[in-house]
Amino acid sequence: MLNALRILIKNGSVLLFILLQLLCFYWIVKYNQNQSKIYFYSKQLIASNILDRYNNFKTYIHLKELSDSLAAENAILLTKSFNKIPLYAKDSLTIDSSQSNLFYSSYNVVPARVINNSISKRNNTITLDKGGAAGISPGMGVVTNKVIVGIVIDTSANFSLVMSILHSNSRISSRLSRCGFFGSLIWTSRDPSVLNLADIQKYADVKLGDSIVTSGYSIIFPENLLIGFVDAYKVEAGSFTYTINVKLSQPLSSINRVYIIGNKLKGEKEFLESQSEKYE
């Protein structure tokens, strides 16, 4: 108490000055109409700016929550699309057995976020924020709404490592949407926006701008997922196949939200196909 009194006595002149300033300001505003209008206008302007900044801050805080919600809704729509379920069906994703078969109800989709991504190496990988705890396992496909991204090659409890399509070991079964010829999508250049479609016979009707989509022959990706467009093509002398450059429909440098595709029938199909050696 004595310390507080000493501080008050020591700084009494300063406190008295501040008090008199506030009192003068009050009288000026109260008894002068012009100054009163200026004060209240300024007060409203400052309050409005503070409220706008507060609302913008609240919106920013909730952006991740909103983004997660939209990603979950997109995952539901993609699951229905991959499983040939009408978009107006219930969210339970169940359909009458007379309308489809087991194959068409085998896909499930999990939304994820990219937390690390490389595009400048010869063998590029991507890290996602979902792992084994979310049901992710090696061999699952990864896509966005606009392009395929790669295949999961390893997981921990909370993260997944993806082999990007920008990888020397990546081969994606793909086809020309218009004429139906299929081949393998590979990456042989160092340009992250251009891939190559190999093994397309030279008598195929290829045109600039043709859409390249997944073939559906792989159990990893459903058919008809957009990959990109024919950017250039030619037949080398003495070759029986085209050299086709494919411009990706979305640069992998811009991906943020992705969707991981699982297929419940993948193991069964792979086991059955491994038995083909007995009949060769």
Write structural notes for this entry:
The chain is α+β, with helices and mostly antiparallel strands. It is 31% helix and 28% strand. It has four helices and twelve strands. The strands form two sheets. It has a six-stranded antiparallel barrel with strand order 1-2-5-4-3-12. A six-stranded antiparallel barrel has the order 6-7-8-11-10-9.
Quaternary: single chain
SSE series: HHHEEEEEEEEEEEEH
Outline: elongated
Q: Give me the Rg, rounded.
A: 31 Å
Record field, number of beta strands = 12
Largest beta sheet, briefly?
A: 6 strands, antiparallel, barrel
Spans where pLDDT lies below 50 across 5 or more residues: 86-104
Q: Please report the number of helical segments.
A: 4
Mean pLDDT: 80
Strand adjacency order, main sheet = 1-2-5-4-3-12
